[in-house]
Specification:
The chain is an alpha+beta fold. The chain contains two helices and four strands.
């Protein structure tokens, strides 16, 4: 298969698979409930992509495609959860441009 023939297939594949990341994030989001322990959340979601804030009451982030599941813990229990769409910064300069 030539490069020229491959491009339409890759585009089609990306369009088919793109919603899966959204569905996965929504599914995970719906399974997390206020009051769950951090250990229960990590058993369900795995280790977070990023953790910030006070170690005793951290905010943890899991990334699924273009969506993020953000959970704020208080005393090792889910206090707040949010599903957010990642913003892509298109105004950043390209490498090598003048």
């Amino acid at each position: 298969m030539t490069k020229r023939n491959l491009i339409p297939w890759l585009l089609l594949l990306s369009l088919v698979l793109a919603p899966l990341g959204c569905d996965q994030a929504r599914s995970k989001f719906d399974q997390v409930n206020p009051g769950m322990t951090r250990q229960e959340v990590e058993k369900l979601l795995g280790k977070p992509t990023r953790t910030a804030g006070d170690p005793a009451n951290p905010t943890a982030t899991w990334t699924y495609g273009k969506q993020q599941l953000v959970i704020q813990f208080h005393q090792d229990r889910v206090q707040v959860k949010q599903l957010a769409l990642l913003k892509i910064n298109s105004s950043s300069p390209r490498s090598g441009s003048k």
